[in-house]
Amino acid sequence: MDQKIDYVFKIVLIGDSAVGKSQMLSRFARNEFSLDSKATIGVEFQTRTLVIQHKSVKAQIWDTAGQERYRAVTSAYYRGAVGAMLVYDITKRQSFDHIPRWLEELRGHADKNIVIILIGNKCDLESQRVVPTEDAKEFAQKEGLFFLETSALEGSNVETAFSTVLTEIFNIVN
Ligand code: GDP
Ligand code: MG
Fold first, then answer.
1. How far is the CA of 39 from the centre of ligand 1 (A)?
2. Which residue puts its alpha carbon closest to atom 11 of ligand 1?
3. What average pLDDT does the segment 31-41 reach?
4. Cβ–ligand 1 contact at 122 (below 6 Å)
5. How far is CA 62 from CA 104, 131, 142, in A?
6. Who wins on pLDDT, 43 or 149?
């Protein structure tokens, strides 16, 4: 049966290279994960359709094309985005320290009402953690962002992260 789509929401993934953006997307869109994922080549997005309050919502999730260098992500990438996932790796301090830059870039390019979630990925590597949950929580609160820690490897909180953003967008447009 043909599925009627009520909404299409564009979501962008941003954050340093190797934090797990492509694997988060792979987990969410196809329930797949790979430990030796190659650096993403070419701008691409994947979609998944979900039902929110009896409406079908197609999430169109964009992944960076290995353009994670500062200011290398083009404005076309952000255009039309209604949600963003700002991802760092809980085992890489630098990836968290760069979050304010990513946020600044996002706010410079995207719609001012964009829904943003801060994501601390790789929470399965607890023994290698260098970014305390509290630090990220505090930052998110100060900047008015949603916040979750995820593991694309184990799949924990990945579904919740995407649905948090999608439901918030849904509530804004309804
Ligand atoms: P991207 O550059 O941000 O797109 O990062 P990738 O998705 O390509 O992931 C970079 C590396 O981290 C790959 O080797 C992944 O397998 C690994 N990785 C991604 N997510 C996780 C996770 O949640 N836990 C662990 N342990 N490794 C992960
Ligand atoms: Mg990637």
1. 10
2. 18
3. 74
4. yes
5. 19, 26, 26
6. 149
